[in-house]
Design a protein that fits this description.
The complex is a heterodimer.
Chain A: E1 2-11, E2 15-18, H1 29-36, E3 40-43, H2 50-64, E4 71-77, H3 89-95, E5 103-107, H4 113-126, E6 132-140, E7 158-168, E8 175-180, E9 188-190, E10 196-198, H5 200-220, E11 227-230, H6 235-245, E12 252-253, H7 266-276, E13 283-292, E14 296-305, E15 309-310
Parallel strand pairs in A: 1-15, 4-5, 4-6, 11-12, 11-13
Antiparallel strand pairs in A: 1-7, 2-3, 6-7, 8-14, 9-10, 13-14
Chain B: H1 3-17, H2 39-53, H3 59-62, H4 68-81
The chains are: A alpha/beta, B mainly alpha.
Chain lengths: 312, 82
């Protein structure tokens, strides 16, 4: 058997911040939209624990599970968890109602985290080490950015989404590609003073190349995806990737307008939104490609059959 | 105009017309600073010309160009090297 995605839920419990919010730092709606495609984003209250937000995304999936099924692992993906000891995966498992005998751990691969989490979860399923795996991304990027920085403050948003993975006869095997280049760590990094440094030109160039190449790889190896979702970093990046992957002939998702860049949560949030809107069929093959700080990049193609969706 | 020159001009004009469909070939000679292009537009143009001509350019070099003619000359040179 091969593993695929069988359920998905997402949560954006924060308040909506529209572009007018940034007038105080001299940014207009027109300027932000032209440079990023972003019209609004959700920001969590500073005091809300990320574990609670992640559990809100996981809970519907846990509730919908067949009584005979069992979640054997939870991979909690985040780049914005500030707490090191302990991580939050165990708290999320408790709050989401998972049983105690479950493998749980935190994972951080910046904006590429969901792709890496998905590959890890699918591998656990296909190796027979877990019957079902929950992969949950949760991000509060609003807590990492300098909210007075004209270059980055308007780009990021918060949210969480979780997918459930299971082995099923109907699924074809997943396909993955991944890579990293530590020499490029300076392109995107948290600064000592607080905030995120972003080398916009280099990041744009490298993100387009890496995500386009990753998408091409997924089509050249294994069953062709029926939809491609790139990390929702910036509409300008997404539209250039769409242009360079147009020959692949499948829908390419750009949902950044209402979410902003939610780092590792952006792909599952966009996937949930597309399914909920009926823009994608309930069954198909997802091609997810991402590029992020580190630098880390990758892609994974995976079958899905998702009869129910919880979307914000 | 050679085939390569023509493909470069078409790619540049398509980029310009994303913001102003009324622009024409004469506008390709204007300074970049006078056109409604930002820094990401120049990276986009660089990447599209690379794809169109199947060559690899140096982003650090093209980022400093003041005229679209500079792009044209640069990519002509790359394409002529094969």
């Amino acid at each position: 058997m091969s593993a695929g995605i069988v359920d998905i839920a997402a949560a954006k419990p924060g308040r909506t911040i529209d572009n007018d919010h940034f007038a105080s730092i001299g940014l207009t709606d027109e300027w932000i939209r032209r440079r990023s495609g972003i019209g609004a984003r959700s920001w969590l209250p500073d005091e809300t624990p990320l574990a609670e937000v992640a559990a809100e995304a996981c809970a519907p999936v846990v509730t919908r599970m067949d009584a005979s099924s069992s979640i054997d692992a939870l991979i909690l993906v985040s780049t914005s968890v500030r707490q090191r000891i302990p991580g939050i995966a165990q708290k999320v498992a408790q709050l989401a109602g998972l049983r105690p005998s479950v493998l749980t751990f935190d994972m951080n691969a910046a904006c590429c985290g969901f792709v890496y989490g998905l590959v890890t979860g699918l591998s656990l399923c296909e190796a027979g080490q877990a019957r079902s795996v929950l992969v949950c991304s949760v991000e509060a990027m609003s807590r990492l950015v300098d909210r007075t920085d004209r270059q980055t403050a308007c780009l990021f948003g918060d949210g969480s989404a979780a997918v459930l993975l299971e082995d099923r006869e109907e699924f074809a095997g997943f396909c993955q590609v991944a890579g990293c280049d530590g020499s490029q760590e300076g392109l995107m990094r948290e600064t000592d003073a607080g905030g995120i440094h972003l080398d916009g030109i280099q990041v744009y160039d490298r993100a387009v190349r890496r995500m386009s190449e990753s998408a091409q790889y997924l089509f050249d190896h294994g069953p062709a995806p029926t939809v491609v979702i790139g990390h929702q970093a910036n509409s300008r990046i997404l539209e250039q990737v769409r242009r360079f992957t147009g020959h692949l002939g499948v829908p390419f998702v750009n949902r950044i307008e209402s979410s902003g860049n939610t780092s590792s949560a952006s792909i599952p949030l966009a996937f949930a939104a597309e399914l909920d809107a009926g823009s994608l069929p309930a069954a198909g093959r997802l091609g997810a490609v991402a590029y992020g700080a580190g630098e880390a990049w990758g892609g994974v193609s995976v079958d899905y059959r998702v009869p129910r969706v919880t979307a914000p | 105009m050679s085939d390569i020159e023509s493909r470069i001009a078409d790619t540049m004009l398509a980029k310009l017309r994303e913001y102003d469909p009324s622009l024409g070939p004469d506008d390709l000679t204007r300074p970049i600073a006078d056109l409604d292009l930002d820094s990401l537009d120049l990276v986009e143009l660089h990447q599209r010309l690379e794809r169109e001509l199947q060559v690899k350019g140096d982003l650090k070099e093209t980022a400093g160009f003041a005229f679209l003619d500079d792009f044209s000359a640069y990519f002509m040179k790359l394409a002529s090297r094969g």
